[in-house]
């Protein structure tokens, strides 16, 4: 099955861009980034910003906007059955060169997991990140992987974004 990602959530005050691989089936159905309630993303962001996780998705996006955080995915479209990154085939990357031209104020790019970083590096290249801090963080996915970390361990590593928000 061919799947397409969500639109970039980026604005004029975005300083931090968090790049995932491809939204889960549940997220795509909801048309919401990190729409699986078991995903640790919103809990981590709430913890790092010292705010609560809003119930309403638009309020979640407002939380990100207030803290200069944007979201997009490395993959624009791909073939995939289910939600696992391991099932992704024939990925087509998003146009990050155009995004960074449109939003030059983005200072830091954080990759939510290894697949996002690998796809970005392979298809886009790290040159587009010149003069920007970038870092791969552990995935916030609730799906077990080879580098499983607890919520608290993820928060410790995700603290890297604090200096930019």
Model description:
This protein has 165 residues and is an alpha/beta fold. It is 30% helix and 20% strand. Strands 3-2-6-7 form a four-stranded parallel sheet. A three-stranded antiparallel sheet has the order 1-4-5, covered by helices on one side. The N and C termini lie far apart (37 Å).
- What share of residues are in beta strands? 15-25%
Report the structural category: alpha/beta
Order of helices and strands: EEHHHEEEHEHEH
Helix content: 25-40%
Strand order of the largest sheet: 3-2-6-7
Radius of gyration: 15 Å
Low-confidence segments, ≥5 residues, pLDDT <50?
none
Number of helices: 6
In short:
The chain has 165 residues and is of the alpha/beta class. It has helices spanning 25-30, 41-49, 57-66, 96-102, 114-123, 151-158; strands spanning 2-4, 16-20, 69-73, 75-79, 89-93, 108-112, 133-137.
